[in-house]
Amino acid sequence: MNQCPVHFIQHGKLVRKQSRKLRVGDIVMVKEDETFPCDLIFLSSNRGDGTCHVTTASLDGESSHKTHYAVQDTKGFHTEEDIGGLHATIECEQPQPDLYKFVGRINVYSDLNDPVVRPLGSENLLLRGATLKNTEKIFGVAIYTGMETKMALNYQSKSQKRSAVEKSMNAFLIVYLCILISKALINTVLKYVWQSEPFRDEPWYNQKTESERQRNLFLRAFTDFLAFMVLFNYIIPVSMYVTVEMQKFLGSYFITWDEDMFDEETGEGPLVNTSDLNEELGQVEYIFTDKTGTLTENNMEFKECCIEGHVYVPHVICNGQVLPESSGIDMIDSSPSVNGREREELFFRALCLCHTVQVKDNDSVDGPRKSPDGGASCVYISSSPDEVALVEGVQRLGFTYLRLKDNYMELLNRENHVERFELLEILSFDSVRRRMSVIVKSATGEIYLFCKGADSSIFPRVIEGKVDQIRARVERNAVEGLRTLCVAYKRLIQEEYEGICKLLQAAKVALQDREKKLAEAYEQIEKDLILLGATAVEDRLQEKAADTIEALQKAGIKVWVLTGDKMETAAATCYACKLFRRNTQLLELTTKRIEEQSLHDVLFELSKTVLRHSGSLTRDNFSGLSADMQDYGLIIDGAALSLIMKPREDGSSSNYRELFLEICRSCSAVLCCRMAPLQKAQIVKLIKFSKEHPITLAVGDGANDVSMILEAHVGIGVIGKEGRQAARNSDYAIPKFKHLKKMLLVHGHFYYIRISELVQYFFYKNVCFIFPQFLYQFFCGFSQQTLYDTAYLTLYNISFTSLPILLYSLMEQHIGIDVLKRDPTLYRDVAKNALLRWRVFIYWTLLGLFDALVFFFGAYFMFENTTVTSNGQIFGNWTFGTLVFTVMVFTVTLKLALDTHYWTWINHFVIWGSLLFYVVFSLLWGGVIWPFLNYQRMYYVFIQMLSSGPAWLAIVLLVTISLLPDVLKKVLCRQLWPTATERVQRGVKHKAPVQAAQSSDGPLLKDLLRQPRRS
Amino acid sequence: MTWSATARGAHQPDNTAFTQQRLPAWQPLLSASIALPLFFCAGLAFIGLGLGLYYSSNGIKELEYDYTGDSGTGNCSVCAAAGQGRAPPPPCSCAWYFSLPELFQGPVYLYYELTNFYQNNRRYSVSRDDAQLSGLPSALRHPVNECAPYQLSAAGLPIAPCGAIANSLFNDSFSLWHQRLPGGLYVEVPLDRSGIAWWTDYHVKFRNPPLVNGSLALAFQGTAPPPNWRRPVYELSPDPNNTGFINQDFVVWMRTAALPTFRKLYARIRQGNYSAGLPRGAYRVNITYNYPVRAFGGHKLLIFSSISWMGGKNPFLGIAYLVVGSLCILTGFVMLIVYIRYQDQDDDYEE
């Protein structure tokens, strides 16, 4: 990134350099479609008026074009030489991350006059990361470079992420460390208590050497302590870390291999940038998603219009492509009357005229907004993508907007005649009025006012038209997530127009309260309108985005949308992707409301509304989804958020924050709009460190999402159109938003159950392994005698019991992939680290202790005072240890076999194979005198043991006793308190044929199962 | 561990059952309907086995006698008192008289048992040199350091066999005498002292060093016997196949016991008239009392035991099988009740 070439102006010459050589004060030239290499003060462009258009899609997600203005006094410098001769100084504030704020001033020196001072604002600032559009080239002077650019300041440093499983693992490890130390301590103390009798410390048959006797008591005690530590150190499963790493590394291949997550269109598959967080995918409680490019395709599409209650649908969209032959109209209702036809044409003209779209003649292929009929090949550009979509949509309905020339708007009507309208006034859009108007004069001299705006701002001003029909249609469309606009008109007579002119003029020239006066003037002008119709534009959602969000919500995950986009746009998307539903009551926490009331009041009011229902709000299944429950959605904007986050002077800073969190928790969906990148990260952080410490996941596709991707527990990048910044900085990258569903519900779930079993099993098998050693110390005079042979000690974790659990942790599927996908509620079964809670951990540890007791005392009673062979010979201590060890290896392996639900041939091979390996190894290890060993204590021990009938019987008995409680617990729990997972497992088992007949998109299995059972 | 699969490029992933995690699999479910019959079957099988084991164990006879010689417990107390506080204790002998009212079913095995003797103490159990015991001449001269303080004699000679285990070799000896008729003559019962050690230990693991000029004594020349021993190792027995390192008593002793109370096989009684067992009558065991155990609070016992296919008397296994078997049946019933009751609830729930 530091290497990409940049054009500099040096001494009036154009020089190419690498961008890392860029210094503050350098003058840079940027060409169309290039990205700004640093934050620039805009000096001049090749456009005469000193403007340029940029798109900041990679900064804040808004793909619309924005106009920036060159500094007044320098906009005349068009050539390298001119610029080279410029002499000016710039003062500006320290770099700060807010994208929309900038304060500075420029002193331009000329030879003749005094220096000219000009203020600089954010309209003069071109941000690094933004792209120059529709402007051939610009010159600018670098003011912030490198890490001081606003984009860089909005980056989050990449920090080490650790999964919740790893954290529990470490907690468990500390417990075991304590157990280890206390075991060693207990044994050391007991040893010295026991040895206080001299005949025990040094009986005649076991004398010490002179040097041993001389040794200091404390030194001896310390050595003993260390020796016990060494003896019991296997209880700390070092091999677990190796296995976990291996499991994560190998397991993450399943994501990259997954065919379902491969996108045929782009030829991209999922990427795994870190394998440390696989299991975290199964623990997600909050999803923060970007809107533009993540939920939506970032592609506006004219869907339909409704004129006087008749619905018109332009021929549409096939796989995102507009069909070229689609010039006709699909009429849904019957053909309108003649009068209707007039209205219809008026409506289309209104759409053609009432906008601020610019036309760019362009023969080269550029961007997605090419006009549908290739011949005209003009590109519409506007700061509002909706307007572009509307103009394009009308074009498909037969009216083509050609251009604005000499204050005349030209359009091509259905009969291919050019109509010219004189543009008299533009009453521009603002977000308070939420409408805009134009006043035009037709060729016949009639003056029209066309007004276009949000339904809520149009309907009150309408005096005529089929309001009810249109309102119904608009509401229906809004619910479907379409962005609706209403169109109205008014015919003006000359006198009226003159009155309006005066009014506007007066407002425009006012020196004080100009804004307010203009607004008042607009208010007066835009009234008594006649409603024409409504339009519906769709920001096309990504394929299956709504389905994905619905599934994720069913899985108990809260989905938040964080976007830099406008509130209206974002809200429409939220409706479209079913984040907000028809019955969702929206709570607004926006700048507008806060201006009216104080933040304090708004927050308290909201929390009252929300909490009124919290009495009945249970955390039970489907509570957030059921139709009769009141469902809340919160909308908050960036400014309001920063007010909430801002610490107050009186020290009660967390007060609002807590209240805000409380409100958020009660809302089923939250939409945050107008967010700066860093604010996105702030939100994530706020939730991440709230008192429940939920696991968060951020998904986004642009550079503006990087900071939140880095902040969240799991960051997912969508490999999108806006570059690969997000994908590069993410932990996982997916081609489409819909892949998130399989990623979490299937892969995440699997990884979680796999690794949690892995962790618990490892602790369990090491308790089984070491606790008998501990018990043995009580019978060998606390002398650190090992129970097992060195080879067994070494190989237990490495080969006898390692492969089955590794393969389990790679292959296990407790429920089928299809079932998991179909029934997202199963995800709740593993939520909140359910399989690694302390309760479960203690169960496993107690099971390990019980098993160890069984192994040890089983063997103890077998060997006590008797012989177990038919030839009367006696076994020694190594046979004792080998018996314990054999029972243990079998128990531990069979315990895993009991837990395995998914027996592929690999599982069979590995489980039975490792048992076989143990037997073969033992036969071999004891069958030969190994010349490299200086002891032969295992010689024939194993074989002798097998020659004894009772040893076989004991092995069978002890393995059975060890497994019995676990089997009992499993069966009883399954019968008495089955989890959703277990119900489904049973269901799948019983109704296998039903399931086979099911398509994967069918209804929930659970619903299906109830029917046959009844009969 | 960070890595990326970009190298795979734009190629479609392999569509194999393995990569798509769709390998055919058997998916068993541990539900009550499977577990119930399993529990009942296992329970019945275990109870059957347990009964067999229990009666089998009950059929085994054992006769034991504590000859430690605590004061007032038979005539060995004299020896015990004589040996008190003297190392090595003076030779002493005592006897144990017992009578059998009926035939002691054979084959009969004679064991000795020591209590409170920590053969499994780590320092003790490593104090041996397996290389030396396998007859390696170099190891004979240079015992390993683990043998200390029984590595070298006071004169600096290597001890053979070195180490604490060998040094503490059990050196009491027993002979059994049978009086067929009351007041009759005691006849010595032949004790078979062979075959008491593991075959592999006796034939493979323990080897004498190569003979020098056909003499075992010369082979051990330059070594010292363990300090507690009265005889050098090559004089443990007059039988050339039972002396040196391959003396069966020695081999038995060298297999260290697992627990501080342990038995070791002393002899088998299976010759002549006694192959079917010990006929009824009065018996006397002559005991050469050498081994001091009272110093560490231990006891010495003599045991006659018959042997079945499952070894000596051990009621544990039978009882354990019975208990586990009944537990299985019991839990089976509990689960059956739960299963039936739950089934109703389940139907209710599903409605």
UniProtKB/TrEMBL annotation, chain A:
GO terms for biological process: positive regulation of myotube differentiation. The keyword Transmembrane applies. The chain crosses the membrane at residues 171-194, 225-244, 761-779, 791-811, 841-863, 875-897, 909-933, 939-964. Its main location: membrane. It is a multi-pass membrane protein. Keywords: ATP-binding, Cell membrane, Endoplasmic reticulum, Endosome, Lipid transport, Magnesium, Membrane, Metal-binding, Nucleotide-binding, Phosphoprotein, Translocase, Transmembrane, Transmembrane helix, Transport. This is Phospholipid-transporting ATPase. The gene is ATP11A.
TrEMBL record, chain B:
GO terms for biological process: positive regulation of protein exit from endoplasmic reticulum. Keywords: Membrane, Transmembrane, Transmembrane helix. The keyword Membrane applies. The chain crosses the membrane at residues 34-55, 316-340. GO terms for molecular function: aminophospholipid flippase activity. Pfam families: CDC50. GO terms for cellular component: endoplasmic reticulum membrane; Golgi apparatus; phospholipid-translocating ATPase complex; plasma membrane. It is found in: Membrane. Belongs to the CDC50/LEM3 family. This is Cell cycle control protein.
